[in-house]
Amino acid sequence: MSKYWSDIVSRLTPYTPGEQPKDKILLKLNTNENPYSPSSEVLDAIKLSTKASLRLYPDPESINLKEALANYHNLSKANIFIGNGSDEILAFIFQALLNKEAPVLFPDITYSFYPAYCSLYDIKYKRIPLDKKLNINLEDYLINNGGIIFPNPNAPTGIPKSVVDIENLLQLNQESVVVIDEAYVDFGTESAVKLINQYKNLVITQSFSKSRSLAGIRLGCAFANEDLIEALNRIKNSFNSYPIDRLAQVAGVKAIQDENYFNLTRIKIIEARKFLEKELLLIDFEVLSSGANFIFTRHKSKDAIIIFNKLREAGVLVRHFNEPERISQFLRITIGTMEDMQKLISILKAVL
């Protein structure tokens, strides 16, 4: 700890991302990246954009990308906010909309960036326990709060909530903002974007990193009514008025427009997930129901950290969470190609 640090830096416990190994890994299944390349249309658009115009600042409002998203979701451009990945947008949301006197509510087992943001911006928060089956019970959130946030599907469990349940929460909680983090929504979970025009307190974030194969670009979006979007724009324009580079904007537009490729790859991932779930059950694993591009699973008799280490020795990297204790026997496995999943099952059988 340096004497030059501010007090808030000394108190922070930063988010820890999944390992990005430098040594050779046979299967990298720990960071929920898409196993498929961006579409050829996206790659061609990026190549065509690498020209002299890169000397110029990008469009600060990302108008073309907002128009593509507005057409896709049947919304207005005024309902859309663009950021450097959904993580940056979440940071703005915590600053602009969740910094209240009452605590922000989120699950006790969820995306670990939420408490990190609360610490960074000195925001009060309360963790709401998942039930015994690791489900989010939205009735537990009907208490005094300064905002509610949770992923749908949840991470790292992968368990989705229905739009009916989300709308019921919105009807009963109208005095604070409800944020639905839909980073993994395209792999079998129903999106709540259709509710944006009905509920003034709803914010939805999505990412281009997962289903659009653009994790290396860093691009995300949020959907909300104009008043909440204006709050996010005030934060953005007080921090960085040119946040999205030219290549990212072009890539995002093409990724939205190339719907055939998007559907082709996400369906392949869903099919590979179903295959992996079925095969894991046959070798004595318990598998939670998933609406994401990963599964959360534990063996009925073998220790998770032993399986994790043996897989790593065999060149397979998955994710293990030490805390909290009740998920310490689970492993989170990213869904790759069907061939990846077949290879994983073969290796698992060997190490078990």
Summarize, please.
The protein has 352 residues and is of the alpha/beta class. The chain is built from eleven helices and 13 strands.
What topology does this entry show?
Layout: H1 7-11, E1 27-28, H2 40-49, H3 63-73, E2 80-83, H4 85-97, E3 104-107, H5 113-120, E4 125-128, E5 148-151, H6 163-172, E6 178-181, E7 202-207, E8 220-223, H7 226-237, H8 246-257, H9 259-282, E9 285-287, E10 294-299, H10 304-313, E11 316-317, E12 319-320, E13 331-334, H11 338-351
Parallel strand pairs: 1-11, 3-4, 5-6, 6-7
Antiparallel strand pairs: 2-8, 7-8, 9-10, 10-13, 12-13
Helix pairs in contact: 2-8, 3-8, 4-5, 4-7, 9-11
